[in-house]
Amino acid sequence: MKAVIFIVLAPMTLATAPLPVPGQTDYHADTAMPFVHTIQIDDQVERSAEALELDQDYSSLVEDLVDLAAKPVNLNAAKEDDLDAIPFLTPAQRIGLFDYLKTYGEVFSVYELQSIPGFDSGLIQNIRPFIAIIPPSHIPALTPKNLIKYGHHDVLLRCEQSFPKAMGYQATDSLLAANPGKYYPGNPQRYYFRYTWSWFDKLRIGLAGEKDPGEQFFRGAQANGMDFYAAYISLSKIGFLKNLTIGNFRVSYGQGLTIGSGLSLGSVPGFSSGGMAINGIRPGLGMGEASYLRGAAATIKIKRVEISGFASLHPRDATAVLSDSSSRNVEEFSSFTTSGYHRTGQELAKRNAVTELVCGGNLSFSVAPNQQLGFKIGLTGLFSRYSARLMPAIHPYNQFGFRGNQNFNTGVDFQVRYRGMYFFGEISRSRNKGVAFLTGTTLAPGSRVGITLIYRNYGPSCQNLFSSAFGQNSLNANERGIYTAISTAISPKLNLSGYIDLFTFPWMKYRVDAPTRGREYGLMLGWQAARSVNVNMRFYQKNTRINGTSQPNQVIHKLYDYLTRSYRFGLEWLPCNGILLKSRIEVKEAGETHGNLPFGYLVYQEAQIKAFKIPETITLLFALFDVPDYNSRIYVYEPEVLYGYSVPAYQGQGMRTCMVTKFGIARRIDLWFRGGITWYTDRNEVGTGLDLTNGNFRAELTGQLLIRF
């Protein structure tokens, strides 16, 4: 998986500025002004992957960022709801922006925003790709002729393959037929396509599909071509209809405690305070086969009241433990399967094993009697039902977890702003009477200081498979904590931010056989050392407790203190217009504190070059790493193609190189090539099982074509 580590944005033309988001390595530089170093989503994505220890799907997050950059919010025509689409703003900053627009009317320059409390040059550069300052445009009448004339089409095709071929592909047809579980029936390529059509911000249509390596294509289990498809048609901002989506969509309300489908940045402790929690219903073409909703959803808005409803029905992969002997319908399953792979017989047996029905809605009311005071309250209901009973094996740590085939969750969320203060919270209750709540505030006591406080209390018996609120766990249950973050501009060239999270787990966890407590804290210093040089230093540490080494027939384990500590130094240098150099050195240690902590290190160098007409951009990466232990693995960004993503965990000893090139074939046609290779010095084979390859290297090649018309 991939995501952005350090992103440097240079001043650029506001209405057309693209953002170097995951999968987009372009950048624009203007030597008339110094660039500003910003940390966008990199730290939060890396922290999310490390903290939750899940193979998460970031395609929806990447899709949101790329689409928002392609259709920036015009501040001179924006309503209060439109500003919710601008990422990296805290609620207090978003409210401050709306008050400014309401008070002063038309904005003529982005630099006017610096007069808003909480806005500085770094924040403005963060949001700059997502906003536009242009006169309000007139949208033509919705007629067949105008739909054809002003419709915008995007067609994207991608093919990827890793080398050398893994053991799972090295079989003749006769061997595959005799041993179907020991080989992959499909080829080693990954295919992906994406088509979207849009008519201003009123009408959108999308279709996407993906075939994973090892899956068949127009044959066998994948007789319809791609293994997974996503599609939608969406209407927006037509009279009182705020949104109507049929097909694939995502839903989030409040703080995501009752429902928060899809990945949300800021869901784990870190330096980011703005996050990416976008409330409401959003169509999506994400390829996460375990985290999507499919059906119909709509929101209507009448003055200060919003009413939303949604219904989703689609199959889910699961591990069956009991089936009807005659009909073979699954009656009980132990867990959901989230990999999305459907290659071997074992994987295909889990495919579409159960059917998931999710329906619910939200009712919200907001009022703002004046610019100093505003209030919003929302009520959310969520009903989920499965065609079989979820019955995982019972262990002491999971005895409060969800079991059965249906659940009902309700929640109430609120937002209050008073002058420069913003208060928020949500309380949620599950069918078994388990309760979880979260409350917090963001303050801006000065133009250069921002403070965030969050308290959460998620009971051990709270059961919700669709929540994604702030916390240390992948599920919002069995956790209490207090989080404090402070960010301050010590001087125009020096920024300091830090956070601390004190948390407890009232009941046992996986690999933790007793209630425990822990703490996590970090400091980050950003220094603009020169006009074209930025330095970033980061320290992070987390203290928890885990089970000791297991002994035969041992039920309860002795607990040991466990520590994770990371030091990072980053340097970004713009030696001339068209060349950006990014360097990173990171040391990380992790393990039980009663012994020697194993540590790993990474030396990383990236060069982004935009000094040629052909190719338009070249991004080069070189990294040396020595990470001897799984617990001290280091998550790192690698440049990718548009809409691509990855957050690989560097582990072992070796060297990594990568190159991404983008060619502008014509005015509306772009072509990407990406190649990478990793050499290991501590092994003679890479991977395990059917993905095992002989030799000490692993390489991959990607080609992608984008056509716009």
Structural commentary:
By secondary structure, the protein is mainly β. The chain has a domain at 73-139: Orthogonal Bundle (DNA polymerase, domain 1). 9% of the residues lie in helices and 48% in strands. The protein is built from seven helices and 35 strands. The strands form five sheets. The chain has a 24-stranded antiparallel β-barrel. A two-stranded antiparallel ribbon has the order 1-2. Strands 3-4 form a two-stranded parallel ribbon. A hairpin with a 6-residue loop joins strand 33 and strand 34.
Salient structural properties:
709 residues, mainly beta, DNA polymerase, domain 1, 24-stranded antiparallel β-barrel, disordered N terminus
Alpha carbon gyration radius: 25 Å
CATH domain class of the domain at 73-139: Mainly Alpha
State the separation between the terminal residues, measured CA to CA.
30 Å
What is the number of beta strands?
35
Please sum up the structure shown.
The chain is mainly beta. The protein has 7 helices and 35 strands. The model is unreliable at 1-39 (pLDDT under 50).
Can you lay out the helices and strands and say which pair or pack?
Elements: E1 7-9, E2 36-38, H1 42-52, H2 59-70, E3 73-74, H3 91-104, H4 121-127, E4 131-132, H5 144-150, E5 152-163, H6 173-178, E6 189-199, E7 203-211, E8 228-238, E9 241-252, E10 280-283, E11 293-302, E12 305-316, E13 318-323, E14 330-336, H7 345-350, E15 354-370, E16 373-390, E17 404-418, E18 421-429, E19 435-446, E20 449-458, E21 479-491, E22 494-505, E23 516-530, E24 533-547, E25 559-576, E26 579-592, E27 599-609, E28 617-627, E29 634-635, E30 649-650, E31 652-666, E32 669-680, E33 685-686, E34 693-694, E35 697-708
